[in-house]
């Protein structure tokens, strides 16, 4: 009897043999959603035989990336506010994406109503940024951009972990996730006060990861000009020069170029605030240190007083100031005086 059954099985077509397999053994595959490569499960065996079932199942897991200006308001803000935290913390990634989009809608249309929930919402957005699914990561990046736009300086105290993850995602993920993270960082530098943001960025300029340093340098270079002349003075131009100078020797060109941009901006501000006084009888260098006025200190002298010799030389080279070593100046002066004798 057993031999007859085995014989019958051997005569079955291959497709019928495969249908005997347990559906639980099926593994997920990579598909496409909205033209983007994304992970989604294989359709069930019934869906494989019925094309309409395939469309239904695809629609069930499809994630749509909606630009901020195209988002619609929620139907019931109070009801969404009550469920949004649970949705963000869900184990179902599609539910998480839906909740993230609801956070975006609330930020745009009901930002005052969600203000008191930011302490719970932002850590869950950071959690979504760490999610292995690219669809969740990108949606979380888009959510971050809308949060920056809506809440500005209200999120400064919650910014550290969010900033770290956005810098990481903008440098080490799939291209479409990187682009979304970069847009979020641009939104951050646009809407968050540079006075509050720069202290958060400066530690990132020393990160061990060179790509994170590069992205942080770009944010730094966008934030400094937003301070304005008075803001730069209040923040401390020496602090900004030192931070930018440290990036001039970075291994990535993005960091070095961002540093050049900042230093040229700072040089312009410094020279406008400290005009050079041309007085041959009493040059600033000939006066005692306590009698020197800020207006008499040139950009070259300022850099040499605030930076190491090598850093000052690099900064002056970038800002097109030719620094003459003191010893060389003395030699030149001595030779000219001896020739007159």
TrEMBL record:
Gene3D superfamilies: Leucine-rich Repeat Variant
Protein name: TOG domain-containing protein
Biased composition (Low complexity): 42-53
GO cellular component: cytoplasmic microtubule
Domain TOG: 67-294
Region (Disordered): 25-53
Organism listed in the record: Brassica oleracea var. oleracea
GO biological process: microtubule cytoskeleton organization
Highest taxon of the lineage: Eukaryota
InterPro entries: ARM-like, ARM-type_fold, CLASP_N_dom, TOG
GO molecular function, one term: microtubule binding
Segment forming the signal sequence: none
